[in-house]
Design a protein that fits this description.
Structural class: mainly alpha
Order of helices and strands: HHH
Distance between the termini: 35 Å
Low-confidence stretches: none
Shape: extended
Number of helices: 3
Length: 90
């Protein structure tokens, strides 16, 4: 597809998601208390969107994923939390 075709097909959906992200960030900034590791991971993932490469989706996914391969004895909770607490800050 051409860039014009991609824009024609996907721009409105991406625009909507971008507005949703902006609203989420507004809610976080208005809220009180400290944020946990998930917000830091989210901000690092957002930084990857400005990279000049065609692997943004992979980079964002990997930045939020647990890269370890050794199984743990017991899960710390009942489900996934969406970000890995062991991610390094860069």
């Amino acid at each position: 597809m051409t860039r014009q075709e991609v824009l024609d097909l996907y721009f409105m959906d991406a625009r909507s998601k971008l507005i949703d992200l902006a609203a989420f960030l507004d809610r976080i900034e208005r809220a009180t208390g400290e944020a946990d590791f998930r917000f830091e991971a989210f901000k690092r993932a957002l930084d990857l969107l400005s990279a000049e490469n065609a692997s943004k989706a992979r980079g964002v996914l990997m930045s939020l994923s647990d890269p370890t391969i050794e199984p743990i004895a017991k899960a710390p909770g009942k489900g996934a939390c969406g970000a890995w607490p062991g991610a390094s800050v860069h």
